[in-house]
Amino acid sequence: MEKYGLERDPSPPRFQRQDRRVSHFVRRCLVALCICLVIYVAFYRPHASSRSNSDPESIPETNDDGKDPVQQPLSATLDDVETSESSFDAATGHRVPLEAHIMSKCPDARYCLDELIVPAMVQIHDKVKFRLSFIGRASNSSSNVSCMHGPSECIGNMLLLCAANLPFPPETKNYTKTPTVRSLGFAHCLISNYQRIPERAFVEDCALEHGVDFRAINECASRQFDEVDEPSGGGDDGDESDPDKISGLALLRKSFMRNERLGIRKSCTVRVDKKIWCIRDGGVWKDCAQDGKGGEVPTLVEHIEQLWKERN
């Protein structure tokens, strides 16, 4: 007898259930989309319309006289710049003079920068007018100079003076000097390993690390005219109209002569507000202010901040 079985569904039951689930999911998505459209029409569009009439951000900018600011004369913009500069100067206030008188290849100078000047400057750099000065001998009858630790120290001194007095950025003709954070960083880099001064590769590495122009520094230090031969060569105190003629020798002679007039002969002598604050000599601190605590960073920082508050 021929047997007839039931005709089997070509799709397994699990696929049928899956198809039903997909169709349910699609219907639910359509319903949700319709609900979102209704909410948008009912609530969002009225608010958007009212915002376009009342939100200040959607109103074209005008000045008090109702004119388009683009049509205002350029002088108005310049006045704003001048006002902002004046406000900045007032906020900056009167900085406190801080000066370190050193020799670039002196171990006391290295200690002075490592343990006092640099750590203090991290905290008070915005409150002081910092300066590095150099101690040595300058002839009154010629352009000759001499340094306690030899000719290489004179070269190191000139490199540091050039770095501090060159225009920044290097290509500008407006005489804005190298920022202190860069010139002091460069000085600290050289003096921290002063035995290598004036190795070219070493100087180049320090210049690159602290963002100063090695080529310009090298050219400045290589110029051999002084302020007697070329008035514009002094940079710091001379004619600043031609920074390309700044001479390391002129800067060095001026620094030596200034320290001689001040009677400063020991490296490192630190002065605050044009008064001797502390002296590092022979591996020890001497003649320090604040009951001998002037060689400590917190004491120096506290004193600078006190002077700053009194003047600002």
UniProtKB/TrEMBL annotation:
The keyword Transmembrane applies. It is found in: Secreted. GO terms for molecular function: oxidoreductase activity, acting on a sulfur group of donors, disulfide as acceptor. Residues 48-73 are annotated as: Disordered. It comes from the Eukaryota. InterPro entries: Interferon-induced_GILT (IPR004911). Keywords: Glycoprotein, Membrane, Secreted, Signal, Transmembrane, Transmembrane helix. The chain crosses the membrane at residues 25-44. One of its GO terms (cellular component) is extracellular region. PANTHER family: GAMMA-INTERFERON INDUCIBLE LYSOSOMAL THIOL REDUCTASE GILT (PTHR13234), GAMMA-INTERFERON-INDUCIBLE LYSOSOMAL THIOL REDUCTASE (PTHR13234:SF8). Belongs to the GILT family. This is Gamma interferon inducible lysosomal thiol reductase. It comes from Polytolypa hystricis (strain UAMH7299). The lineage of its organism: Eukaryota, Fungi, Dikarya, Ascomycota, Pezizomycotina.
